[in-house]
Each structure stands twice: as structure tokens, then as C-alpha cells.
Amino acid sequence: KSANPQWREQFDFHYFSDRKDMLDIEVWRKDNKKHEELLGTCQVDITALPTKQTNCLELPLEKQPGSLLMLLTVAPCTGVSISDLCVCPLGDPGERQQISQRYSIKNSFQDMKDIGFLQVKVLKAVDLLAADFAGKSDPFCVLELGNDSLQTHTVYKNLNPEWNKVFTFPIKDIHDVLEVTVFDEDGDKPPDFLGKVAIPLLSV
Fold this sequence. Notes:
One of its GO terms (cellular component) is synaptic vesicle membrane. The protein is mainly β. It contains 1 helix and 11 strands.
């Protein structure tokens, strides 16, 4: 019930050089659980922003009244990676030993914000729901930890997809929950939900 909402939320997006350079933003209005209305959109050209500094942006919504105020910082991506199984970060014994030393008890108070990192190997899915008329799906997998999000590539026309990818997240809060969701890619339409699992970090 507000025309001037304040969210005050922070999101981290992992921007890699092979991705597009535009950040797309949509503002939605919810009447109830079933009815939603798009109030406007805007875009930010990431490449035009100065790096390693906080940019204060006021973005007018396209073809609609209103604007968005946000702080946006482009900084080097640290501790986050997507790799194949054969080159995963913990696969090298020397690197594993270095990490064990870095997070040993005697070094635990050197950097209180550096809790550690989580490495997740996403191998495959089995017997997924068929989302299209041909009895197949186009599944991809999204991993979310806090406000961090990474995803696999899409395996087309397959109910038993194999991704074989390794994802690395820096951990900011030991009480976070890793959420792994499988979606069916549906062209320009929003993806269809195929299933989800939630894993509390404290259970690992």
C-alpha cells in the first residue's frame, strides 16, 4: 500500500565476461497471491559504470511514471567460480592444504568476515517431470545461497540431465540455507518449476 516503497535490500550478482552487459530491472505490483501487474522496467549498462566505487543511480521507469533509486557497485568477483568437474578448486591437493590452513582454528580470528566457502558439485538429475507436450523437459539448475545465485547450462529434451559443474560460493552467514531449484526453460516465457531442495549449511 505504498507509492514510495523502501526495500533497503542488497543483492550480489556474479557478472562474468561472457554474459551480456545490461542489468534488467522490473517493478511489479501484487494484489494478492494470484494477481500481479508489471509497473515498469529499466536497464543499467554495466560497462558504462566506473569500477570499484559505489554509483548512486536514479533510474526512470520506461513508458511508466516513477523511478528507482539504487546504489550499484561493480567490483572484482572474489571467491565465486563455475568450473567443470576436472578442474574444480578443491581437486588440487596443494590448494586443499592451503585452504585447510587458512581456516584452521589458529587463524580463525584474522578475518571475521571470511567464514569460508562452499563448493557444490551438481552432477545430474533423475526422472524429472515432463514439462512439454513431447514428454520431455529442458532443465537447468539454479543454486542460491543468501542473495548469491549461480546456475547451470540448460540440457535440452532430457528428463535425466547431466550438468557435471562445480560451483563455489563465499559464505557470509553460517546460518544460510543452500537452495537448489530445477527449472524447465520455456523460451521467452518464465521457466517452469520442476523441483527444489533446501540444505542448511549447518547440516553440512
